[in-house]
Design goal:
This protein has 273 residues and is α/β, with parallel strands linked by helices. Helix content is 43%, strand content 20%. The longest helix has 19 residues. The radius of gyration is 25 Å and the shape is globular. It starts with a helix and ends in a 5-residue tail after the last helix.
Length: 273
């Protein structure tokens, strides 16, 4: 092999070595560069009212520091599924100044049908722990969040399906906890449609109600009774209630919270709503 051939072989080997990843040196660089990308943190909360420990997720705005301004708070049900996508929606909307920065508090479930149902279903004999769960929010969790984070009194509650129905119940059960509500495809059929009469009675007896309510419906069967709920709201809602209903028959039930959060937050923080 002449000198020219040797040089060509060396150049070829150098090219092959640098052209393909996976050398021990490259692997070391990649390994040393890896760092977790966090969207929040979680803590364990020992609830006396619920008699159990609950995991709570927290997402803070990028601008958050203890010394800076306070933020509105979004309380989100079904956080084991919806926390990541909802935080992404919040971040993109706040980054472009469409909404203010929000603290997002996610509540994963331990017993969804127990906690997020206002009554015991007479047909299936399940549920009914909703009032106890509202006590947990009012007397334990919300005070804890307010004491440990820079929060405003402006709170939003969001739920989907069964938790969307419970969001509607919270809307009627205690007007001191939340200023705005996003009810995504709420399951208004619960316990022989008991929520329809509750909403009718509540709106008729609160003529000065100053809240915001955003309700959505996706491609779901008629037994959800969302349209019947909206008919009641249209008929008896006081003029002081800022509300909106959006139906998207092309949207699937499972992924409805993504677009509903986006549209709902834009509605809540719109100056012209």
């Amino acid at each position: 092999m002449n000198l020219l051939s040797v040089r060509r072989m060396v150049l070829l080997l150098l090219f092959l070595f640098n052209a393909f990843p996976g050398s021990s040196q490259d692997e070391a660089i990649i390994r040393d560069s890896i760092a977790p990308v966090n969207i929040g943190h979680a803590f364990q909360f020992n609830s006396v009212i619920l008699n159990e420990k609950r995991t709570i997720y927290v997402h803070l705005p990028d601008s958050y520091t203890k010394e800076q301004k306070s933020y509105p708070v979004l309380y989100l049900f079904d956080a084991e599924i919806n926390f990541k996508p909802v935080c992404g929606v919040v971040d993109i909307l706040s980054r472009w100044k469409i909404i203010p920065g929000l603290i997002v508090i996610g509540l994963p479930n331990t017993d969804r049908m127990r906690d997020l149902t206002p009554t015991r279903d007479r047909k299936f004999n399940i549920g009914g722990g909703g009032d106890n769960f509202l006590r947990f929010l009012k007397e334990e969790l919300i005070p804890h969040i307010d004491n440990n984070y820079n929060t405003q009194s402006f709170r939003i509650l969001e739920g989907h399906s069964i938790s969307g129905m419970f969001t509607m119940y919270a809307f009627t059960a205690d007007t001191t906890l939340f200023a705005a509500y996003i009810a995504v495809s709420p399951s208004m059929y619960w316990d022989e449609q008991i929520m329809l009469s509750k909403i009718d009675d509540f709106l008729k007896t609160n003529p000065d109600l100053r809240k915001q309510l955003y309700v959505t419906l996706s491609n779901e069967p008629e037994f959800m009774l969302v349209k019947e709920t909206i008919a009641i709201i249209r008929k008896v809602a006081p003029v002081t209630l800022k509300w909106k209903f959006r139906q998207d028959p092309t949207e699937r039930h499972e992924i409805a919270p993504l677009k509903s959060t986006y549209d709902g937050l834009r509605f809540i923080f719109s100056e012209n709503n």
